[in-house]
Amino acid sequence: MTILKCIAVDDEPLALKLVQTFIEQTPFLELCASCDNAVEALTLIREKQPDVVFLDINMPNLTGMELARLLQEQPGTIPKIVFTTAYNHYAIEGYRVNAVDYLLKPFSYEEFLRAANKVLQIAEDTSNHFQSITADDEFIFLKVEYQWVRISLKDISYIESLKDYVKVHLDDSQKAVLSLISLKALEEKLPSSKFMRVHRSYIVSLDKISAISKNSIFIDKAEITVGEQYKETFKAIVEKWIK
């Protein structure tokens, strides 16, 4: 059974205790931390790497909405967000930061469980969207709409992140493939000997790089900027090529 690690964040002690209790009585949820402010939550999220954060919005110093926006800008896997708030006017803004659900206080366990099940479904769908591959494998399966599509690794030029989707660009004028999976999740399954993350939004096939400049990679007609945090790693690869 899939177990989702959770962090609960709320500056109201009773509200925080209620979410903790709901998490603890839900079999597929595991409470790994809780706190009463978003500043501490940001540190805990980086340390604990939770799957989901049950997040209050109205908090001093840093609001839950501001924390959610910060998380969107961070590299690596972003936890799913379920907002818990007493104010309904944040709903539209909540969906802009890809919140899975929006629980309006006071909410029942039934409502909480419905939101938790949404997160579970997303997690299970994502884990089933591809098979784990190694450097010796020649293909990967990705779920595209309602079918599984077999894609040869040798045909992949580069992979582009489009929020919750990835767009796999193929060579030889083949049509790009769109699949509901995060770039980080796919990166972890691709062989590092053949593919490299060079930007928060791009993974490239090392074999398909046709030219490089100080800050860019060229694959056919596409120019991909190397992100600041990836420059040193990519530089090390380039130095091996030109020696």
Helix content: 25-40%
| Cα-based radius of gyration, to the nearest Å | 20 Å
- Kindly name the structural category: alpha/beta
Q: Which assembly state applies to the chains in this document?
A: single chain
Q: Major beta sheet, specifics?
A: 5 strands, parallel
- Spatial order of strands in the largest sheet: 2-1-3-4-5
- Spell out the helices and strands N to C: EHEHEHEHEHEEEEEHEEEEEH
Q: Which geometry do the CA atoms define?
A: elongated
Residues in β-strands, percent: 25-35%
Summed over residues and divided by their number, the pLDDT gives a mean of 85
Number of strands: 15
CA-CA gap between termini? 49 Å
The poorly predicted ranges are: 129-136
Describe this structure in words.
With 243 residues, the chain is of the alpha/beta class. 32% of the residues lie in helices and 31% in strands. The protein has 7 helices and 15 strands. Strands 2-1-3-4-5 form a 5-stranded parallel β-sheet, sandwiched between helices. Strand 3, helix 3 and strand 4 (80-85) form a beta-alpha-beta unit. The longest helix has 19 residues, at 109-127. It starts with a strand and ends with a helix.
